[in-house]
Amino acid sequence: MIFSYTVNHRVLLRNISLPLEKGRVYLITGVENANLGLLGGIFAQLIPVRDYSKIFAIQALINNYTGELEVTDGALPKTAAYVGTVPERHFLFARVEEEVIAELGDTKNFGEKLLAFGLSKNFLRRKIATLSGGEKMKVALTIAFAKQCEGYIFHGVIPWLDRAGRKALLAHIANVKASGASVIIIEHEIQPLLCVVDARLFFDGTTLHAVNIREDVEPGMPALSLSYYTEQCQQYKKNVLEMRQVDFSYIQGSALLCQISLDLFLGRKYVLLGENGAGKSTIAQMVFRVLQPQRGEIFLSAQPLQKYTRTELNQRICYLGQFPLQQIILSTVGEYRKQLSDPIIADWFDQYLAFPDEYPISLLSFLQLKILCLLSALSRTTELIILDEPTWGLDRDGKNALWQLLDAIAKRQGVALLVITHDLELLKVLQPEIFWLNHGQIKYFSNVDQFKLCPDVTRYFGEEMKIYEE
Amino acid sequence: MKSDLCSNRLHEAVSTYLRALSLPVKIFLLLALGAILFGSNLLVSAQHLDIYFACLVSSVALLLVSGYWVLSKRVLKNMLFLWAIGVVIYLVFASIKVYSGGALSPYFTLTNVYDRWFYVWLFPVILLGTFTVGLIFMAITSPAEFLRWGDTGLKIALLFRAFEQAIQVLQDTKTALLMRGEWIEEGDEIISLRKTWRIIKYSPLLIRVSVRNIILFWFPWGWLCAINLQKLMQRKK
């Protein structure tokens, strides 16, 4: 199959050639730009959209979806399922059940299919807005695999998935491959996919080239020095945050967090580890007073959290949520730039977000949005930085950029860093102290070695731990 | 704790029963209740205004009780809060009209101050009833139910969904404003002038950001999802 795609005589994709044989898995890596997103959409026949809007502003928003597709050889798969980089963009409806009925006709056996991704049958009744990013992605994948299609296209899915999710994804890919469907995976993390991939192609921004499957396979992220922490952590004894016997539940009678206690000290780095939906983000939101604990107390620098005004809290805690878009209030880069009073933070801002003032926030990439939210929430007096799933949806370069910025921040001012994640790779990268949240209970480990030696951890993570030991 | 659990079960049972009703029945109930609320206005007369007012208030109270069983407490609280703000502003202007002695209605003359107050209160009570009926309908109806009506159903579903999404975005934006110290926090139950002023001050920003987020971040993919669904429905035919 060979095709080209043009929008208003601009060639966005030129002579894209892919054999698309039945029962084969193709991996596309390469330059991450808007055209790569179009590529997946075209394979899935979501794009081009034939409808045009008479309203100019709307047409401008959807312009790139309404171009001309010219297929010069072969044909696109007749039926295809597509799962893209942004988890919530797969859902038109508010509840999982509604979405499943709309797309599959009924919910028969769907509960069992969810189990394969480590989600319970109750997810059918959940509101999509209450799911974490990883859970949304798992539901979207379950719906995609429940469809009988000739082709499956996955773009940027891996960074959202935890251990169970990745395992289930690979198993499902192997199944559909065996049933004769072709699979296209557009991804930057190559390593986890090597066991299922048959051919690899490189996207240079407009065209595709065949490359060796194992070419440039990165062994994993190097351990970051984050030198400030290793040098200073012994000197600092100041308790930044204390949580005492905190309980929380979203549904009455079903506790999500039970008697949670933890201490965070200035100048140290921590990882709060747990599977998708374990309640990690809930802890972060309680610390930032977005949610209120139902029982127990939280102290910030030895003062009850409630004693602080919001301005004081914002000066002490820098919180970056899972979905940066939800933290965006202003419309342009310039509006955010104007709000920065600290010259060094302003310098970082210009370094990572070198855009003119009138540049719209809606055009920023996921990484740029994260950096924008991080820097706009940071101040000279910040004592605690909370990053909720910072690596979600980021490729390797994106992760490196984010860690470099954090290292610079840490070197400048002594902060406690709390990273909330399901990603075990971060243990290797950060070498942090660990809080493991499992079934509503929390366990503390002073270092990675202690964590790895714990029998419960070995039992729970099994082979997964070995991968990150390599 | 036990009573909470029982109340939750009852809430669940009522919601499940209403959700299970077919779409035409739900629409009929919506229209019928709407007609009762607005249509009954035609029967009102100057002589029996107090009786009519009592009947209307009782009906709306019944609707509110039903709303309590179907809607979440948060939704009900927010609705009552918004309604109360509207009522306060409305009553400021209405009281001038009540005491200035001018005609309140082109159909009949009300001279007694009590009757004039009854008449003035009709509008907010009807509005409260309408809000409650609308929210109950939304809570028990899924936009996906409209898909059975083909292309028209899909358009209704998309519109319905846009409205639902607007509520969700409003909530997200409120949290974002709260994090910046530009909105009051959940625990702030005590009504104070400072907090009310903050709500009034930042409400335009809240609405502007919510509308922008819907247009920029939801509309394009919501629209793509709808078109994809349209293709799927055509294939199934």
Helix content of chain A: 25-40%
What is the number of E strands of chain B? 0
Question: How would you characterize the largest beta sheet of chain A?
Answer: 6 strands, mixed
Into which percent range does the helicity of residues of chain B fall? over 70%
How many distinct beta strands of chain A? 19
**What is the straight-line distance between the termini of chain A?**
40 Å
Sheet/helix structural class of chain B: mainly alpha
Count of DSSP H/I helices of chain B: 7
- Give the biggest sheet of chain B: none
How large is the share of residues in beta strands of chain B? Answer: under 5%
| Uncertain segments of chain B | none
Query: Which strands sit side by side, in order, in the main sheet of chain A?
Result: 5-6-7-3-8-9
Shape of chain B: globular
Q: Taking Cα atoms only, what radius of gyration of chain B do you get, to the nearest Å? A: 21 Å
Taken from the alpha-carbon principal axes, the silhouette of chain A is: globular
Instruction: Calculate the terminal CA-CA distance of chain B, rounded to whole Å.
Output: 51 Å
